[in-house]
Amino acid sequence: VVTFWKLNHHKMKNLYSCLFLVLMIALLPIFGCNQMAEENTTIMTRLIEEGWNNKDFDVVNELCSSNYVQSTNGVKSKNQGPDVIIEGIKANENAYPDFKIIINDVFATDDKVVLRWSFIGTSANFNKSVNNPGTMICQIEDGKLVEGWQSLDYLNLYQTLGFKLTSPEAS
Fold it and tell me: What is the pLDDT of residues 89-144, one digit of tens each?
């Protein structure tokens, strides 16, 4: 009985080891994607926190590829590379000197990261506080942003600043 137990126990142990190995090999792509998603989430969080909020252009240059392109509300940027983002930071700093971007949600899968964010700040021209939502999807390859698609709620922003929307018949 003892010999039978040792023999079967050894076979079962090998069987479990093989099953575990097969399971790990089958799940490897899933774990690899999760790792890539986590790394890409970290890249985007750094871009927002260090690049945008701390206005660290070295971080922007580090995280963006030289051929990075961005579309905002369907309009593709004329320039490319890190300067697209650096110009955006500078323009927003001029219009809203105390601006900050708050990350509300971040999701990632494979080479894409989605951010839902809020832009907060005080308008230099209108002296009004704004809290404007936006969404950004970025594609990341080899640790660098290669393309971004951004949607901003301009209607909310302009109404917050005091602009009124009127119908063509009313004007």
Answer: 999 999 999 999 999 999 998 899 999 999 999 999 999 999 999 999 999 999 99
> CB neighbours of 52 closer than 8 A, spacing ≥ 6?
85, 89, 101
Q: What are the φ/ψ torsions at residue 21 (nearest 5 degrees)?
A: -65, -45
Dihedrals phi, psi of 124, to nearest 5 degrees = -70, -35
CA 62 centroid distance within chain? 15
Helix (H) or strand (E) holding 79: none
Indicate if the pLDDT at residue 61 is higher than 90: yes
Q: Is 161 buried (19+), middle (13-18) or exposed (0-12) by CB count in 10 A?
A: middle
The rounded distance, in Å, linking the Cα atoms of 156 and 54 is 25
What is the radius of gyration, based on Cα positions, of the chain?
A: 25
Residue 12 pairs with which residues in a beta bridge? none
Instruction: Name the DSSP class of 97.
Output: T
